[in-house]
Amino acid sequence: xxxxxxxxxxxxxxxxxxxxxxxxxxxxxxxxxxxxxxxxxxxxxxxxxxxxxxxxxxxxxxxxxxxxxxxxxxxxxxxxxxxxxxxxxxxxxxxxxxxxxxxxxxxxxxxxxxxxxxxxxxxxxxxxxxxxxxxxxxxxxxxxxxxxxxxxxxxxxxxxxxxxxxx
DNA sequence: CGAGCATCCTCAG
DNA sequence: CTGAGGATGCTCG
Length: 167
Hints:
Blueprint: E1 11-14, E2 19-25, E3 28-34, H1 47-61, H2 79-88, E4 97-98, H3 99-106, H4 110-118, E5 131-132, H5 147-156
Parallel strand pairs: 4-5
Antiparallel strand pairs: 1-2, 2-3
The structure holds a DNA duplex.
């Protein structure tokens, strides 16, 4: 049923992969969600949303060209989640980290990091897809079927991840 | 509290 | 290689 998501989002951006729903609060981005294939484009009309779309244009044109973006976020989350989301934004394009590595850096547990990644409100721009498991790709959006998105993004960023053999 | 997680490690078979 | 199971930190009801 196309269009059913339009009342939730201010803008629906069409990426090469799937549509992304934007929610704005004034000049700040509050949500960027991957939408189901059935959703249809809804162009930006306000300035701030348009600038987010331009950032996305640049990213999907060439990930490595966009080393940092100046989108403003306004995010709801616990202190711990914010700490993880900030750490995510410090992972540069082309690199990945494991949940365990990030956990050690933040003095916490790998599963807690994964949980915070899962609750990332801003897909792509807060690059939770750059965190992978010690032995493989890890999860994405709590749904195995969405893993192709994570895989696509990493490939687009020139990352060659491989399923490590254990031991 | 207790259950549920986008994990990790170890230890059999 | 595979699977089971414990340790782990954080969140939500």
